Amino acid sequence: MISKNSEFEIDITAMGSEGEGIGHTEDGMTVFVVGAIPGDRVVAHVTKVKKTYAYAIVAKVLTPSSFRIEPKCPVAGKCGGCTLQHMAYPEQLRLKEEKVRDCIERIGGIKNPPMEPIVGAENLYHYRNKAQFPVGTDRNGNLVIGFYRKHSHDVVGNTDCCIQAPVNRPVMETVLEFMKEHRVSAYNEETGKGLVRHVFTRVGFATKEVMVCLVINGDELKGAEKLAKELAEVIESEGLKLTSLCLNINKKNTNVIMGDKVICVYGDPWIEDKIGDVTYRISPLSFYQVNPEQTLKLYELALEYAGLTGSEAVWDLYCGIGTISLFLARSAKEVYGVEIVPEAIEDAKENARINGIDNAFFKAGAAEDLAPTLPRPDVIVVDPPRKGCDEKLLDTILKNAPKRVVYVSCDPATLARDLKILVSGGYKLTRVRPVDQFLHSGGHIETVCALSRI
Ligand code: SAH
Questions:
Q1: Nearest-5° angle of CA 100, CA 86, CA 34?
Q2: Residue 287 Cβ < 6 Å to ligand 1
Q3: Catalytic (active-site) positions
């Protein structure tokens, strides 16, 4: 019988939704083993027991999977970030592709989906353009910037993350020195006291612009101009340019990282970046894909699957800062983008202007509420968050009966659930292609699908 803190040997046969290993005990219990990968035989240490399943961590690897490798990052085992750094990259890709196929078959009820091979990345490290480092104090009372220890909110000091842009290291060290010198406190989640909660950065890989944003539990940061000067120097020595230093105000006792208010203390309250030949302005509160190399491939696929000839009216729902809308606009008659974050819609309008695109129109609001008010579409593109599309929206899509639907998804399970509804409403799934955006992480898998009206 499995009990908390017991240990036993188990073979890992599958990968779970967050990249953890899955195995089964002799009496049929499913065990989710963090740190294990398919093909491993491990000693599992049980952390939680439920009726039919249990959670565990790897106590010892007895026989490693042939795909197990030494992770590049020395703290990969402790950090709650990467869950697959100890798996060879081609195997990460194979398992992600399999996961998408499995969800579409099992949850979507679509046999033999028309899968195309997953699109892998060339650059396996330092691929992320966005970082959110928590700030805290360690057991000895020292200020630290780093990462949350796995399954906890203890901040472990580490500024050298191998999936982030290298410039983050000197940026974090500069912020840490500044905080020590000016006796700026770190936020403490338990007491609700202390000032700096997170350091958020965005790097325009194409433009070399850098935004640094300190999330604070207060209204001001004394000496912010001096910090801007120090950051500008250190960022310049890395061959990049600080174009924005912002404060984000978050005084709530919450796990949500960003608050609603942004104060710009240096430069502009945004940075610009380019995907392909489209320039994008990005504010701190706006969503922007984190892996620019793979985003280009993703948007090119969305464009290809949309099959535009220049005469179509297109809806781009969940449009963020208008990224996909503007990518499609040059090949369409007109594009209507809808997004719930008003700041992102401001960015989207500005982005249309910067790129000289006059056939893209944007509205702020929930896609499920605004879609029924838009002009009739020939093609609909959706790119919802992990929870997938609202049922009301799927209903509106079916009522409008566009020629094609392009579904860009970051969660295969909700994608499959929504595909089932579209397929039973008169669409045929014609193309499916996962694009690996989140290398070394098992939790998110991006997929592009095309559906045609039968
Ligand atoms: N297509 C964009 C953004 C995709 S992320 C890109 O590739 O950059 C999903 C977006 O959906 C986020 O910007 C989020 O703010 C937005 N969103 C979440 N719920 C929404 C809703 N109900 N209606 C419209 N947009 C929503």
A1: 70
A2: yes
A3: 410
